[in-house]
Design goal:
By secondary structure, the protein is an all-alpha fold. It is about 60% helix and about 0% strand. The chain has a domain of about 70 residues. It contains 3 helices and no strands.
Length: about 100
């Protein structure tokens, strides 16, 4: 699993928005990976991590909207980035891959 420690507090709302958007994209990639690997043991673990990541993203978005940027940043820091990439496989998100 790729868990990236990000920088500390003091992010701008624009930086947080970019990180939230990146997190949504990453969760989408994880779910698409799971869709193609339904018979693998790692799929359930990846789905659980995607679920946690989506919850952290929702918290980050709520806190950002409330002006609690430090809390939003803290939620983003808890995301497991790219939980499906331990096998080195690149996820194809093109419409043809679905």
């Amino acid at each position: 699993m790729v868990s990236r420690n990000r920088r500390g507090a003091g992010e701008t709302p624009e930086q947080l928005t970019a990180e939230i958007t990146r997190g949504i994209d990453d969760a989408t990639q994880a779910i698409l990976w799971c869709r193609r690997h339904l018979q693998e043991r790692k799929t359930s673990e990846t789905l659980r991590l995607a679920q946690l990541n989506i919850a952290y993203l929702a918290l980050a978005l709520d806190w950002q909207m409330e002006g609690e940027l430090d809390k939003a940043s803290s939620a983003i820091d808890r995301i497991w980035w790219q939980p499906y990439k331990d096998d080195g496989e690149i996820v194809d998100t093109s419409p043809a891959a679905h």
